[in-house]
Specification:
The protein contains 11 helices and 16 strands. By secondary structure, it is α+β, with helices and mostly antiparallel strands. The strands form 4 sheets. Strands 2-1-5-4-3 form a 5-stranded antiparallel sheet, sandwiched between helices. The longest helix has 67 residues.
Length: 502
């Protein structure tokens, strides 16, 4: 073979080494670039989750302020109702350090707070009181450990929410603990809170996302940063990638990890978005919850009236009774709507003298068909000649029907012969007491502690609004509604003070 055609071993070795080095460099460049792209995608997804969580919390805070203002307009100066409502709200939102109400007096501002603490300066309260209503009137004051939101309910009453910065930082990082930093500031540049995590030096600039919360009353700006390569350069995969089998194994494992990580992040993002959408339907669901029983009764009475009219000969007596029942329930539905309008209006409706025994009988009549179909034995033990209480008969009937329906639902898991529901009334000093108890097994510790908390429910598909509305109705009438486990079931005790309508 001519010398020119022979392969020089040294040149071959040098060429092979250069080719191997080129492949290593290309593989390293591909792997690092891909890692940076993956980190950027994960960071974007995680930052959007944190943004959705912070936006949701800001919207909840706006809703709490609006509810406090509406409650002040509906029941001005009603400290017990305001205190119970504030405590129930605070239990559901851990970022709220305290719910504060300020009333202007001759000597200055006087504060009521669920957790005590230092009062807001008078100049901030004066500025908040002079602002217009609605979300446009929300004022912000920066604190060392968070911030305070103000909303006026008039020139002499201001509500404030004290928000914890550590709690918000923990919520923002719940889906992305690898953030280098995350902060929130006002539109004019004041820092509300900031969290930083030490990061190793990197030649690449840190990833950053900055976005303004989509709320009118709190247009704060969230800024999050992240390391450009997450945990750093993947030296292990680089070494394995320099061999064919190692590169194939590392690529397969990395691809599977990426698929699972992105799927989980996308599910978390969809969950956060679905939570915000569901919150919009809670108000409509509450009204539907209140109207469901009378509308169902109207339908049942109307169908029964049609059947009796179609008999040969027609049973006019029963048809007339069914038609009268439909009229009564239609009027009850109208009364519920009227009470809802009165609840959100600045003026409360006049109280009437109510016989609770009659209210219980009306509620039992409304639920009789349900009890019959579910084979529930009802034991009625009502004390005669009870004094009247002041309030709304329609509202009290809503409470009793809700308690009876909850008891009936609890008995669905009990064998038919053991399904018993007891309802008692008695006079206990200056109070009329009504107790509804069932044999459905009772409530667990968590449910018993949170049974009146807004949006908490143990029912599949439940709204978590029924008992919250019932407690508000009873508190508005000056009474109490409590829950306890007794014998083999749960008991709900309603207490209302004896009194005539004013």
């Amino acid at each position: 073979m001519p010398a020119a055609m022979r392969l020089n071993p040294r040149l071959f070795l040098l060429g092979s080494v250069l080719a191997w080095l080129a492949c290593c460099v290309l593989f390293a460049a591909w792997l690092i670039g891909n890692e940076r792209s993956r980190t950027r995608d994960d960071f974007t997804t995680q930052a959007r989750i944190a943004y959705s969580i912070l936006t949701q919390r800001a919207e909840q805070q706006e809703a709490v302020l609006a509810s406090l203002v509406a409650l002040e307009h509906a029941m001005p100066g009603n400290a017990p109702v305001m205190s119970n409502f504030a405590l129930s709200i605070q239990h559901g939102y851990p970022q709220l350090v305290s719910v504060e109400r300020y009333g202007r007096e001759d000597t200055g501002w006087r504060m009521f707070s669920t957790n005590g603490g230092a009062a807001a300066p008078s100049r901030q309260l004066d500025a908040a009181a002079d602002q217009p209503g609605g979300t446009a009137g929300t004022q912000v004051a920066v604190l060392d450990d968070g911030y305070r939101l103000f909303r006026a309910a008039g020139h002499d009453v201001v509500f404030a929410l004290r928000v914890s910065a550590p709690a918000l930082a923990e919520l923002a990082q719940s889906g992305a603990p690898s953030f280098q930093s995350v902060q929130m500031r006002t539109a004019d540049g004041r820092t509300l809170w900031r969290y930083e995590h030490p990061a190793a030096w990197s030649p690449w600039p840190a990833l950053q996302l900055e976005k303004q919360l989509n709320t009118r009353g709190q247009p704060f700006v969230m800024t999050a940063t992240h390391a450009p390569l997450g945990a750093g350069v993947p030296w292990g995969r680089l070494v394995l990638g320099w061999s064919i089998l190692g590169a194939a194994a590392a690529l397969a494992a990395w691809s599977m990890a990426q698929y699972r990580s992105r799927t989980l992040a996308q599910r978390q993002l969809r969950l956060a978005q679905a939570t915000r959408i569901n919150a919009m339907g809670e108000v409509a669901a509450g009204i539907a919850h209140e109207l469901n029983q009378p509308l169902t009764a109207v339908l049942a009475n109307t169908q029964a009236s049609v059947r009796w009219l179609e008999d040969d000969p027609p049973d006019l007596v029963r048809a007339r009774e069914a038609a009268s029942g439909a009229v009564q329930q239609a009027r009850r539905a109208g009364a519920i709507l009227k009470r809802l309008r009165e609840f959100i209006s600045p003026h409360t409706g006049a109280a009437e003298a109510v016989d609770l025994n009659r209210v219980v009988d009306d509620a039992l009549s409304l639920m009789s068909e349900t009890f019959r179909q579910r084979q529930i034995r009802v034991v009625r033990n009502m004390a005669p000649n009870l004094p009247t209480v002041a309030g709304s008969a329609v509202a009290f009937e809503q409470v009793i029907v809700n308690l009876l329906l909850n008891a009936a639902d609890a008995l669905l898991h009990v064998p038919a012969p053991q399904r018993a529901l007891h309802i008692d009334s008695t006079l206990d000093g200056p109070q009329v007491v009504v107790v509804v108890r069932d044999s459905g097994g009772g409530l667990n510790a968590e449910a018993l502690a949170r049974v009146f908390e807004p949006f908490y429910t143990t029912k599949e598909g439940g709204m978590g609004l029924g008992l919250t509305i019932c407690e508000s109705i009873i508190h508005e009438a000056g009474g109490t509604l409590g829950a306890a486990n007794v014998d083999a079931g749960a008991a709900f005790t309603l207490r209302l003070p004896v009194g005539a309508a004013t």
